[in-house]
Design goal:
Number of helices: 6
Radius of gyration: 18 Å
Structural class: alpha+beta
CATH class: Alpha Beta
Distance between the termini: 36 Å
Largest sheet: 9 strands, antiparallel
Strand content: 25-35%
Strand order of the largest sheet: 1-3-4-9-8-7-6-5-2
Shape: globular
Helix content: 25-40%
CATH superfamily: PknH-like extracellular domain
């Protein structure tokens, strides 16, 4: 199944490492100013080439090995979740969204400290700005209302929102526990919208225990590169 494939790939990454790559105010409102041509251009979806160039490398995040994520770990086809009211959360597990991203790139990060059991994945998803806003809104709503769901024959429980990181134009963060063949693995997601691009951070604690945190330094490094690319 796809779900177990993702977990297996992440675990293998931890063991061997990937191939290195580089208060609204009251009163009358003034008419909103029209965006300049440059601003309008910046909000168009980035291309795959631009996303690839904006993806962090080992030079940007000291102490991590950075590798490509195999294409089969981020499939194009969405798998239905039960209940459907958890679909956005389920899709994001495989870096999927509705509406679909126009381009995606992903990287897997492995700490060079052997005692660190946290596995990290980063994804850049290009969207129209309105679509990117919708995805964040759906994730925020579902992280508050979706407690558990089934996806690719596996169970995910304890879904709850976390404090969102202070990066980009807006962000949403949540945690859950995946139950795969009896192994309960806590995971954490933080999704940052920077213009029309979604910057996704996924952390899994391969050793179990408490929910892992996505290092702030990793998030800052990646969001900064996306902002420069846009």
């Amino acid at each position: 199944m796809v779900g177990i494939g993702v977990t297996a790939a992440l675990t293998a990454t931890a063991a061997c490492g990937g191939q290195d790559t580089d208060d609204k105010s009251s009163g009358s409102k003034k008419p909103a100013a029209k965006a300049s041509p440059a601003a309008q251009e910046a909000l168009k979806p980035l291309t795959e080439a631009q996303l690839t160039k904006a993806a962090i490398t080992k030079a940007d995040v000291k102490g991590y090995r950075v590798g490509d994520t195999p294409d089969d770990e981020i499939p194009e086809v969405s798998v239905p979740a039960k209940p459907a009211t958890c679909q956005a959360i389920a899709d994001m597990f495989l870096l999927g969204t509705e509406p679909n991203a126009t381009a995606r790139v992903s990287r897997s990060l492995t700490s060079l400290e052997r005692t660190d059991g946290t596995l990290l994945r980063m994804g850049l998803l290009a969207h129209k700005e309105a679509d990117a806003k919708k995805v964040v809104a759906d994730l925020r709503t579902q992280s508050e209302k979706c407690n558990s769901y089934e996806h690719t024959d596996y169970q995910y429980t304890g879904v709850k929102p976390l404090k969102a990181p202070d990066f980009g134009d807006e962000a949403v963060s949540y945690t859950m526990t995946s139950d795969i063949d009896g192994d309960k693995i806590p995971v954490t997601y933080s999704v940052v919208r920077s213009g029309s691009t979604l910057v996704v951070f996924y952390a899994m604690n391969a050793l179990g225990g408490k929910a892992p945190e996505v290092p702030a330094a990793v998030m800052e490094a990646q969001v900064t590169k996306v902002e420069k690319a846009a």
